[in-house]
Every structure is written in C-alpha cells, then in structure tokens.
Here is the input.
Amino acid sequence: MPPSILTINGATHSFEAGQTILDVALGSGITVPTLCNYKDTTPTGACRVCVVEVEGARTLLPACATQAAPGMVVQTESPRVVEARKMVIELLLASGNHNCLVCEANGECELQSLAYRYQVTTPDFANPPDTPYYYEDDNHMLVRDFSKCVMCGRCVRACNEWQVNQAIAIGYRGAHNKIVARGDFPYVNSDCVFCGECLQACPVGAILDKHAIGQGRPWERRLVRTTCPYCGVGCQVDVHVKDGRMVKVTGADAIPNLGKLCAKGRFGWHFVDHPDRLKTPLIKENGAFREAGWDEALDLVASRLKDIRDKEGPEKIGGWCSARVTNEENYLMQKLMRAVIGTNHVDHCARL
Amino acid sequence: MTTNPGPCAIVPTDNLKPEVLDRLEAIIAGRRATPGNLLPVLHEAQEIMGYVPAPMQAAIAAGLNLPGSDIFGTMSFYSMFAWKPRGKYIVRMCQSPPCHVNGAENMLQALQAELGLAVGQTTADGLFTLELSACLGICEVAPAMQINEVVHGNLTREKIGQIIADYRAGKAPDFRQLPYSTKDYRHYKHCPAEPVLMDNVGLIDPMEIQAYLDRGGYGALKKALTTMTPEAVVEEVKTSGLRGRGGAGFPAGLKWSFTRPLTVTPKYIVCNADEGEPGTIKDRYLMEGDPHKVLEGMAIAGYAVGASRGFIYCRGEYYLSQHRLQHAINQATAQGFLGEKLFGTDFSFNVEIRSGGGCYICGEETALIESVEGKRGYPRLKPPFPGVSGLWGRPTVVNNVETLSSVPAIINRGGAWYKSLGTPDTSGTKIYQVIGHVQTPQIVEAPVGLTLRELIDTYGGGLRPGRSFKMCQTGGASAGLVTAESLDVPMDFGSLAEAGGALGSGTMLVMDESTCVLDFLRAVAVFFAHESCGQCTPCREGTLRLLQTITRIYQGRGKMEDLAFLERLAATLQDASYCPLGQSAGVPLMSALKHFRPEIEAHIQEKKCRAGACQAHPS
Here is the structure.
C-alpha cells in the first residue's frame, strides 16, 4: 500500500497508518508544542496545547491524539490555533502559583517554555498569591507542590503505564481535580514505592527531588552518564553534578531502563558524600577499630582465611557476595571460594 | 508556603466492624464477576455505613483486584459518594438554573437556618447533612430538594420547616410507596393529538406487567422478532425519521445502521437515562410511569443491531425510576419478554441497570460508557464512535430513553406513520417541558413543531400575573437564549437552532422580566464549573474563570475589559474543549451578550441592575 499524504502548513507529507498528526509533524521537522504528551504512553489529548486546525473539523483537534488521515489539511500555527493556545497557557498560569524566580524547574519547565514561546504572562484573573495549595513534604525523597501542578496527568501515566505501580490516579472533578494516591493519603501512607517516576515525568515543578531543592539550577549542573551501582540490571543514570558534588540522579533514556529507575537508583546515592562512609579499611584490635592500609588489611584477611582453612577445613568458610557489584565481580567471588578456598559455600544477597 | 492538609488529615485508624466487613465481602463476592463492577459495589457498600471510609476502600480494592488509587480517584469523581461520615438524611438542595430562577438561594438560606448548618456540614445529632446538588432533575417543582430518595418541591420557608420537623419526628416517607416523584402526569394539561409515548403513563400500574400487556405491550417486540428481519427493523426506524431525543438529534435509524453490519460481538445497547441536562424531566415520567416501554424499545434495538445485552444508565438521583425499572426487568424476565430465546427465536436480550453518581458529564455518551465500565466519567476522543467501539471496545448503540420509547410505536404502526407526525425537520412527537416562570410548569407530549408561545400559554398556564416574557433558555443549560421574537418558531431541531437556541432535550426554561440576565448566567456558570470533568484545560480552568468573572460583574465589581475576556474565553471553550460540555459552556453567555448587552454593561458602568434583581445593586 502506498503511503498516504496529508498537508501540513501548505506542504504535503506522507504518513503511515496509525500515525498521529503530531507524529507526522515531528517527523517532518514541524514543531507542535505539547504538554501532557508523554513518551510511549496513551495520548489523552487533555491539555489542549497541541491543538491544530484541521479543515472540515468543527473544533480544533489535539495533534497528539488525532490520527492522520489521507487528504487532511492541517494548520499548526494559524491565528485561530495561536489564540486558543495562548488562552490555554493563560488558564494554566492562572491556575497556580507559577513564580519562576524560586522554582526548581526554572530553565527546564515546559510551561515556562510555552509561555515564552507565545509571550504569555500571568493574567489578571490568576489565583491570588495567598491561595492555599496542597503541599506534601513528609517523606525523605520527594516533595509534591500542587501550587505548580498543571493536571497534565503525566505522573499518573508514568506510574501506571511505565512503572505499573498503580499508586496514583486522577481524583476529584473539574477544577478540584488533584493527583491522588490511595484514599488521597500522602505517598508515605499509600501504595507508592518511591520510584520517583512521577518526578521524572513532571513537566513543571510540582514534584521535586527533595535533596536537590536549592542545590543548583539546571544550567549550573553537569550531567555525567554512568551505570547505577545497585543491582545487576545496569540501569543508565545521569548524575547531576554541581561544583564537583552530586545534586541528583535521573534515569537516562538508554538501554536497559529507558529512563526508568527504582527508589534506590534515584534516591539512594547519598552514601557517596556521607561523612560516615568508610574511606580506609579498619582492623579490630582489643575490641576497637583502628585505621589501616589496604595491603595490611588484605594480608590480614588472607592469612586468617588460610589459618581457618588449614586448621578447621575449607567447609568452615563461606562467601557472601553483593548485588551491588558487577556480574564479573560476583564470578570472581565464587571462583575465589571454590578454586582458592575450596568450598561451595557461596551465596549472594540477590537484591538490595 | 501554605500547607493545606486536605482529606489526608483524616487518616482513619478505625478498623471495620466484623458485621460491616461481612456485608462488604458479600457485596464484593456478589459483584466480582460483573464487568465494570466498581460503581455498583461502591453504591452498595455506601449503604452499609452511609459513606465509604478508607478501610472499606482498601477492602474493595483487594476484593476487586483494583489499585487503591483508582478506587479513590473514581469515587471522588462522583458527587454522590462520600468518604467521611454523613448524617442519616442527606438533604440535597438543588441549585440548578431552573431552581435558581425560582428562588433556590433563598430556600437554601432557609434550610441552613432551619438545620443550623453550612453546606457540607452534619448536625450534631447525626441526623442531617446538607449538600448542594447541581441539578436534581425535578424542575417542574422548583425550587426543590431531595432528602435521601424523596423529592420535596415547591419549597417555601414554611414548607421547609414542616418537612424538617417531620423528619426530626421520625416521619420519613418511603419513596417506594409514593405514586410518583413529583407530580401526577394525569393532572397536567394534555395535547389533543394522540400520544405516542405517554399513552400509558398515569393510566397503568407501572409495577404490573399485565397492565402493560393489556394495552398491547411487547406486541411490537413480538412483531419485530417473528415477522421482521433485523435489517427491516433498522429500515423502519430509518423511514420514521426518528431523531435522537437526548439533545443532539442524530437520526436513530442511521446510528443503528452503522452498528448492524459489524461482525464484532458482543454488541451492546445502552439506554441513556442520565437525564442530567438542567430543566430536563421527561425521561423520569416514562421510567416511573411506563418502564416496560423503555425495555421493549431496548429489546427491539438489540434485535435490530444484533446486541444481546443492554444497560440502562440511570441517574443516581432517580431512585423511583430505578426501583420501577428493576421491578419491570424482573417481571419481564420472568415472563419471557426479556432473557433467552425470546418468542421462540434465537434472539436473547438481558438488561441491567447501572446507577450514575451525580455527574452531568456522564450523560455524554462516551463518558457514560466509561462510567458503565466503572471508571471516572471522562469523555473519550471521537472517532471511534460508540457505534463502532463503545463499551469494552465493542459496538454500542447509545440512545436516550425517549428515543427508545418511541420505537415500539414505530414498529407497530410503521415508520411512514411516524414520519407523518411532526415537522419535515423532526418527525414524530416530542415531550416538551415548560418550566421556570410559568404558572403551571409541566411536561406535554405533542407532535414536533409546537411553538414556544403555545407551550407557555396553553400548557404552562401563561406567565405569572402582571409579568411579561423576557427570555427562554431552550433545550437545557448548554444552549442559547431566545427572546420574544422567537415565540412563534416551531420547536424542532432545525428551526430552534436557526433562532439561536436549540431543541436539545425539549426543555424550555421561561424567564420573565424580573430575571437579571447576569444572575441567570451566574447560575449557569455555577452549573458548568461544578460539572466540568476537568480532563481538558479550557473546560477545567475556563468554567471556573467564567463563574468568577460573571460573579464579579454581578457583584458590581466588573470592568469593561471583563467582557472582552469573557468573549475570548467563550471562543476558546468552544474551539478547544475536549467534549460538548466545554464546547457549549460559553454558549449561554455569548447568546446573552447578543441579546442583553446593554443590561450587562449597565451592571459594570452604572452599577445598576435593570431587572432590579441583583442583591448587590438594586435598581
């Protein structure tokens, strides 16, 4: 079957069955702004930022959720489209406390980008500054600040479609709509496992990494791609570094995790700079630890293991390895136990 | 940063009592196999304690294998579910536009004084909880309220005092014993033309199938099943020109003809009995007075399109309708008019009632489908249309109660006969509703084409003495206003649309010159802000700003720039909203600006209400 043709902004483009107007536009280098659209999740067409004008349609249509059709004539930046987008952006800016000055998302906020692109400022009819909003910071990992929430629902889809934790949903109705966990309880009292996928999906500053607050703007941070040190999956992470210190970790859009992380990979990195972290081996003498060098410590371990093997037999020794180390290191551990010590007592904690 | 604890502050520590848990488990077990079981389970569970506390939500989540977040997300969407303790009697005061123009705000004050409560509060003795309802569907007795299942209409201060005293004294009526929810249809003034829909209402016992059979009931179903092919039934309905009576006016036969040839099974018939459009009260009379006619229409539709299962999605406030329909289903199934292999043919048809939860948007067919599936009533993107992909992704015909109730007569007497009634634009008869500032608000079935003047003068008893006609909101809260110049327009879909109104559900909210157009618009805006589902930005945020801006002008704090903003906002609502609710939320406003701009501007520039109705600045 030959590819079908549609027209966008006066130029023809070919498309395949199943593609949306947004797919075709992006594939052809035409930028259509979006907000609620989120990678590989069901398009909801809810935020109405991506609305486009389609000849013959009674109303504007969401590009993200409208299938391309042969002969369609689409305008992505007509005056009618721009007017609707501006009003939608005004309404979103009015709905919360969108003060960029102290917002963590400043510089990477999608609402801010939209406001800039269409030169929209907070309108007169916005909620007054003293409007109360739900604010949740009773856990160690993230903060939910609903004064910034634009109800795009990306966090809900990230939770339900990416991580399949099903911990959050959209609750209430109309302007009272709110992201809710079980019973509308805080995350700590809900089914949430703190993977932080909602945080990564949030296009604004409504869900924040608690420990990154005030620790540097996006443009002050350097990204270092590395492998998560926890389990054997080998998730790729972007470590955000400012002034030589870690600020936060986000999932990298790479194999195998495609952006996803678990609670440990995303939030469990504070050992790196922790003052309690061991920096040298310790040797216990007379009931107390003293610092030692690596050669001394390894010599001591080797001699003690040899003593035990010789006197008590290799069956008195077992090896316990960690999910924190690589497969290769785990292999070496069992090799050490089996071939050097001569025992089959080797095990692994399997998960952390 | 302000911390608003919200409902999270009420983390429950109580465990469910064993007898509560037993009942709950029985409910869950009984519904486990039902598809889309969450709403029925929530309705039944709520009966145990009057609300659904968090431990109960958790038990339902476990029992139905649904995420806990979905339980709360879904139940909090529907007005009729509660997760905090409530009183024994839920007093719901209607604040819909029809009740509003009849003084609902004053009655609310009286009610608050009588109960000593603010809205949302419960009396210390645990007897009453006061709630507001966006519309109760009892506009012929406006201003009105509902206490649990029972309607109390035509309220006055004295009446409210008496009603509350009766409840306090333990005299609570049983809704099942009442002959009707509001008024006796037989006491209304009737159109001399032969009725097609209302021929039985008030004349037969709706709880007795034999009464329906004695008047030829289920004869059309038998005729269709035993003498006609499904295609012939579709053709007959096409010939009749029957247009959907829910409001959109889409030709029913055409709708059926899209679903008929599809080979995907199962297919479904959904009867839209949500009747949420303010001012709309007609389907209730059919369901309460002649429930078998609705069932017969559904079964014929099922045969025509090849569906063997039907759902009636009835609004939650219509307790008596649901009670009578369920009884009718039981009787019809027992006597072989519903169920397996009807009239000795291979055709089987079963009907189940699903109750809404106080949600206008669930009258929109795709939101209704989501609701039957047990989810939040969020409209779906169209296409695909329900006729191709509806309930659980299967072909689904959604028709209004009045539409389906017209079908038996069309089968009995032929499409051509039906086509001969009404106007060329809209054939058949229509149940018109005349409410608001008329002497005798009522419904009347008449051949389509009645004029507004006839409806008001002949059936509505005319305006109140000494009052003159100002405007009429046609077809429901989402339609435009017409003024005196449109009084003689025949009320069919085409003519009313041309006049700037809409036939919609056939309800006509009449307002005399004592009505302030801004006060009316405020009531409409309250309705839309309350009923917006919140899925899309323009409607979620826009209906709120519409309400705030109109209220500000009404209170004498408006600026002329507000009007320009309202026009921009209404345009975006119409152009960029997800579904018809948002698309029409600004229509009454635009229509009012067209007809009554000087009156609205006077509120801003002169701080003066020409109707003398605004409390903020009497004329």
